[in-house]
Amino acid sequence: MEHNLFPTRVYQFTSSLPTHDLVEPILNLDKQKDLHYGEDSGGWQGGGMIFQTSVFQPIKEFIERKIQQTFNQDFKITDVWVSIYNKGDYNKIHNHPVTNPLYYDNEQWAGVFYIKTHKESGRLVIHSPQNPTNTHDFEPKDGDLFLFSSSTYHSVTPNQSEEQRICIAFNFHLK
Questions:
Q1: How far apart are CA 76 and CA 111, in angstroms?
Q2: Local confidence pLDDT in tens for the 175 residues of the chain
Q3: DSSP string covering 143-159, please?
């Protein structure tokens, strides 16, 4: 499904992959070595090597297939990380600007794939580039994939659930 907002384009896909099989491998990441804690808004992030692990290959292949089908051109995933949010954790408004000069001439996109969600575990909020107070919220479900330009400002509302919200975020550029 394609959503054209503000006029920001957001692509949304749903997989039927068994995402709960990935909860334990993510929670087993070493919080001292692989993850860092967000001091401002909470949540653990890191684990940038997960796509090199066989258990994550179906997710990686699904993401790559959807990127290829959507853009029909070569691309490269440049960054990958997991996010683990406990009750009260959220993510402030931000974007993912291109910081590597190797990618300045390529269109950069961001994505998020949801592993574990609950009704009150936080909504993905897309902000208008003209007025960031104008927003559109999505309530992600397990297996949902969202793709949007990396310059798009976005945030995540606080997790009000007693359950963790877990997702895989990434950046990619179109060649």
A1: 13
A2: 888 877 789 999 999 999 999 999 999 888 777 888 887 788 899 988 899 999 999 999 999 999 999 999 999 999 999 999 999 999 999 998 877 666 566 689 999 999 999 989 999 999 998 888 999 999 999 999 999 999 899 999 999 999 999 999 999 999 8
A3: TEEEEEETTS-EEE---
- DSSP E strand stretches across 40-134: 44-46, 75-85, 91-94, 107-116, 124-127
Report yes or no: 8 and 129 within 8 Å, Cβ to Cβ. Answer: yes
CATH class of 2-174: mainly beta
Domain ranges in the chain? 2-174
Beta carbons within 10 angstroms of residue 80's beta carbon: 21
- Written as six digits, the tokens of 85 are 């949010």
**Can you tell me the distance from the alpha carbon of 65 to that of 13, in angstroms, rounded to the nearest whole number?**
11
Cα–Cα distance, 98 to 171 (Å, whole number): 9
Dihedral of CA atoms 12, 17, 21, 26 in degrees, nearest 10, equals: -30
pTM: predicted TM-score of the whole model, two decimal places: 0.92
